[in-house]
Design goal:
Layout (H helix, E strand, L loop, with lengths): L1 E6 L17 H8 L4 H4 L7 H14 L2 E4 L3 H4 L9 H7 L7 E6 L8 H9 L6 E7 L3 H5 L6 E3 L8 H12 L2
Parallel strand pairs: 1-2, 1-4, 2-3, 4-5
Bound molecules: magnesium ion.
Magnesium ion binds next to loops.
């Protein structure tokens, strides 16, 4: 069975504590003053420890990543907008880490719970999936709550979640 990790960005790879680094702080200030994320997002530097933790997950479990972050709705890869995979590659996430369908589909008012279902489709392909996201409210809406590995927004992807994910997949 293939393993898929639905990946959020804010609060996972770009945690709260990374917003006050000398590089990110001026960008975050501009964002707070109203500059659109489309003009800023690809300039933020992800937290290198969080990215290293993600690398450990990918290498030790063989999972493939699918972007579920709302960043995919901004970096759409057309017109003057860069593609989300290019933005992620700049931050140390090579394209080989991603599934052949690397971005979860969405509709106007869909939630991440629906978007996971859109991606999974009719269930004809057996997939053992997990969601890595700091949004705790998803837990209450997800039927399979044990598939949600929740990070803390301030800290991002830490050893704790790496262990949970590796443990989930090593037991299969
Ligand atoms: Mg988030």
């Amino acid at each position: 069975m293939s393993r898929v990790l639905f990946l959020d960005v804010d609060g996972v790879l770009l945690p709260g504590r990374a917003l006050c680094t000398p590089h990110n702080a001026p960008l975050f200030e501009a964002f707070r003053k109203g500059t659109a994320l489309a003009q800023l997002g690809d300039k933020f530097a992800f937290d290198s420890c969080c990215v290293a933790n993600l690398q450990e997950i990918v290498e030790s479990t063989g999972c493939k990543l699918v972007v579920i972050s709302t960043w995919r709705k901004i970096f759409i890869g057309s017109g003057d907008r860069r593609g989300i995979l290019d933005v992620l590659a700049d931050n140390g996430l090579p394209k080989e880490w991603f599934h052949e369908r690397p971005v979860a589909p969405y509709r106007m008012t869909s939630t991440k719970v629906h978007e996971i279902q859109f991606w999974l489709g009719d269930g004809s392909e057996e997939i053992d999936w997990l969601l890595l996201d700091d949004d705790i409210s998803i837990l209450t809406r997800l039927d399979e709550q044990d598939r949600h590995i929740c990070t803390e927004f301030e800290v991002g992807l830490s050893d704790k979640e790496v262990e949970k994910i590796c443990c989930h997949w090593s037991s299969k």
